[in-house]
Specification:
The chain is α+β, with helices and mostly antiparallel strands. It has 2 domains: about 5-90, no CATH class; about 120-175, no CATH class. The chain has 6 helices and 4 strands, in the order αββββααααα. A hairpin with a 2-residue loop joins strand 1 and strand 2. The relative contact order is 0.11. Keywords: Metal-binding, Zinc, Zinc-finger. This is SWIM-type domain-containing protein.
């Protein structure tokens, strides 16, 4: 049975987490099996991946390992072999269609940098929304207001639906008057 050095396991786990382990295939036979995989080098990611071979018993204990890196022929195993073993023990057998699509998605840094805003209703949940933003009422007929803009009217004088109704009535009468004149 083969054992790994502590550093090989921790470095192999980092390679696994960084998705450097690829093309892993397990071939089983009557005496156990073989696991073949490729591991992208940690620092020279454009170089050819290391070929890793792991021979296992029927109970899946490691018998023998090989890796094409410099440390790959050592008795204690290298970080690339450890990464493939960790991959085999952690990887689930999901197909690509079982996972959400990953193309045309913004990077996490972009999502954090350009966060979307939220609506007033999201900022103040549970509060009544008294003003119908789609309404096209005019407030020019409001009397006894020295300077009246829509913004100042909403902010100063309209507190509830009860306050808006007289304004709507004025607007309705005005519209009826326009129709009669035409």
């Amino acid at each position: 049975m083969q054992t790994f050095r502590g550093k090989s396991v921790s470095k192999g786990h980092k390679l696994f987490q960084s998705h450097h382990v690829q093309e892993v295939v397990e071939i089983r036979d009557s005496g156990g099996g073989f696991i073949h995989g490729k591991v992208t080098p940690q620092t020279r990611v454009n170089n050819r991946p290391y070929d890793v071979k792991v021979e296992v018993n029927l109970d899946r204990t490691v018998r023998r390992t090989e890796c094409t890196c410099k440390a790959g022929l050592s008795v204690r195993g290298c970080k690339h072999v450890a990464a493939v073993c960790i991959f085999i023990n952690n990887e689930c057998t999901q197909s690509k269609t079982d996972q959400p699509q990953c193309w045309n998605q913004p990077r996490e840094s972009q999502v954090e940098k350009y966060k979307k805003g939220c609506t007033i209703a999201q900022m103040f949940p549970g509060q009544e929304h008294l003003i119908d933003c789609n309404a096209t009422y005019t407030f020019n007929d409001v009397q006894n207001v020295p300077y009246c803009t829509e913004g100042s009217l909403f902010g100063q004088y309209i507190q509830s639906e009860k306050d808006i109704e007289p304004l709507r009535e004025i607007a309705r009468r005005r519209e009826k008057g326009k129709k009669k004149r035409i």
